Automatic annotation (TrEMBL):
Protein name: Histidine ammonia-lyase
Reaction equation(s) it catalyzes: L-histidine = trans-urocanate + NH4(+)
Residues where 2,3-didehydroalanine (Ser) is found: 144
Annotated GO biological process: L-histidine catabolic process to glutamate and formamide; L-histidine catabolic process to glutamate and formate
Pathway terms, separated by semicolons: Amino-acid degradation; L-histidine degradation into L-glutamate; N-formimidoyl-L-glutamate from L-histidine: step 1/3
GO cellular component terms listed in the entry, alphabetical order: cytoplasm
UniProt PTM comment: Contains an active site 4-methylidene-imidazol-5-one (MIO), which is formed autocatalytically by cyclization and dehydration of residues Ala-Ser-Gly.
Covalent link (5-imidazolinone (Ala-Gly)) residue numbers: 143-145
């Protein structure tokens, strides 16, 4: 079976996708095991010596000044988990839960957290055997780490809470028993080490940035189909236009469009049908390209975060030191996730305006709403309504979460990131964008069929044929949501097939 080896240093976004969505097994690198043991020895030594260290022999948050006796330190860790499991709202999807477990295990593998190796191995065993804790989406401030949602993960490790196993929702205790996994008793530092980190926002964000990268490429292909459907002018994509304003994403997008549209016989040159196109066609490189640059920035932030130690305190075994810091603060991810949501929402904004140009007979020379018998048939009229509804919702969702903060823990934790809220909003925006692009995909191919012009570009021909293999031409009205969902589900395959034909898109 395929596997991913974690060492806290080299996990990639693609690795997270493989584990979260495709069930790859996870193993802990031998060097990581050595580091974990070394950090644990420091914790044990401090406990034996009776040192006062935050989270090990003290309470948490505002209770950091309360010293806990040695015989109560295990109860302290259990109490931490059960008291912090305050998540509410919908359950996080299984792929997100798997990503959370993987990222927390990878962070612990760095060897700065002080957990026992057997505790880390229990988490990995749950992941490999498909014991998926029930984790609720709301309740994290994103600044003492994702305390509430991660506590729901740890509940199952100690035989509490709830989990799914083989598709059945069970008590945490029964899920572990059925999977043949022994529940653990948390010892000093372990409860805090398992929940004090940014892994929920980062898990959601990792999946989101992967999907955003895919949607960015799909948007270029779908837009190219619209360019053909509207007989767009390709001079606007000429490389010298973009060389004199060398924004990286803009240049990449223009190159993509030229390659996708190569050999097309249905596009035009300036002055052939009209002097210039509307912005939604002419400015595709500028708009899509700016989103590409933003997504690339977010990708770099995520790549750093998935291999970071984000709990508190941190154990530096080489110096025999335990230092209390603030790596749990989610501000880097919060800003990045807000930026991601804004960037991806723009792909839908311009897509919806292209849909309008396709369906509005006042803006083109096609049948109104892309149907031959308008009046009897409504064609794509309400599909455009749906796209408009989604982009309007995205405008609300794109309002930054990171500009908000609210004090907690009696003002000890007096600035928080709201990073998990930002990540969840970005995920919702990405869902909406996929549906808007699906509607444009359908509308562009419908317009091409109405024109009867099939001498398409090397990339657009692949895209057109893929859709028509799954969704027939709309000759008369039918249930449209089925087509929209089919087209949305094809977007990743669309990118893969076009790349097979013309090479990797940027």
């Amino acid at each position: 079976m395929h596997k991913i080896i974690i060492d806290g240093e080299n996990l990639t976004i693609e690795d997270v996708i493989k584990v979260a969505r495709y069930g790859y097994r996870v193993e802990i690198a031998e060097e990581a095991k050595r580091r974990v043991k070394a950090a644990r020895e420091v914790v044990d030594r401090f406990v034996d010596e009776g040192k006062v260290v935050y989270g090990i022999t003290t309470g948490f948050g505002k209770f950091s000044d309360v010293v806990i006796s040695k015989d109560e330190t295990k109860k302290l860790q259990r109490n931490l988990i059960v008291s912090h499991a305050c998540g509410v709202g919908e359950e996080l999807p299984q792929e997100v839960v798997r990503a959370i477990m993987l990222l927390r295990a990878n962070a612990l593998s760095k060897g700065y957290s002080g957990v026992r190796l057997e505790t880390l191995e229990t988490l990995v065993e749950m992941l490999n055997k498909g014991v998926h804790p029930v984790i609720y989406e709301k309740g994290s401030l994103g600044a003492s780490g994702d305390l509430a949602p991660l506590s729901h993960m740890v509940l199952v490790m100690i035989g509490e809470g709830e989990a799914y196993y083989n598709g059945e929702r069970l008590s945490g205790k029964e899920a572990l028993e059925r999977a043949g996994i022994k529940e653990i008793e948390l010892v000093e530092k372990e409860g805090l080490a398992l929940i004090n980190g940014t892994q929920v926002m980062t898990a959601i964000g990792t999946l989101a940035v992967y999907d955003a990268l895919m949607l960015s490429k799909a948007a270029d292909i779908v837009a190219s189909l619209t360019v053909e459907a509207l007989r767009g002018i390709t001079d606007a994509y000429y490389y010298k236009v973009h060389a004199v304003r060398p924004q990286i994403g803009q240049q990449k997008c223009a190159q993509n469009l030229n390659r996708i549209l190569e050999e097309s016989r249905v596009t035009t040159r300036q002055g052939e049908l009209r002097v210039q196109d509307a912005y939604t066609l002419r400015c595709i490189p500028q708009v899509h390209g700016a989103s590409k640059d933003a997504i690339e920035y977010v990708k770099k932030v995520v790549e750093i975060e998935i291999n970071s130690a984000t709990d508190n305190p941190l154990i530096f075994a080489d110096e025999n030191r335990v230092i209390s810091g603030g790596n749990f603060h989610g501000q880097p991810m919060a800003l990045a996730m807000d930026f991601l949501g804004i960037a991806v929402s723009e792909l839908a904004n311009i897509s919806e305006r292209r849909i309008e140009r396709l369906v509005n007979y006042q803006l083109n020379d096609l049948p109104a709403f892309l149907t031959k018998r308008g009046g009897l048939n409504s064609g794509f009229m309400i599909a455009q309504y749906t796209a408009a509804s989604l982009v309007s919702e995205n405008k609300v969702l794109a309002h930054p979460a990171s500009v908000d903060s609210i004090p907690s823990s009696a003002n000890q934790e007096d600035h928080v990131s709201m990073g998990t809220t930002a990540a969840r909003k970005a995920r919702s925006i990405i869902y909406n964008v996929s549906k808007v692009l699906a509607i444009e995909y359908l509308a562009a191919c419908q317009a091409i069929d109405l024109r009867g012009m099939y001498e398409l570009g090397r990339g657009t021909k692949v895209g057109y044929e893929l859709l028509r293999n799954h969704v027939p031409v709309l000759d008369e009205d039918r249930i449209m949501y089925i087509d929209i969902n089919k087209a949305s589900a094809l977007l990743e395959e669309l990118v893969i097939k076009v790349e097979e034909k013309i090479g990797e898109l940027m």
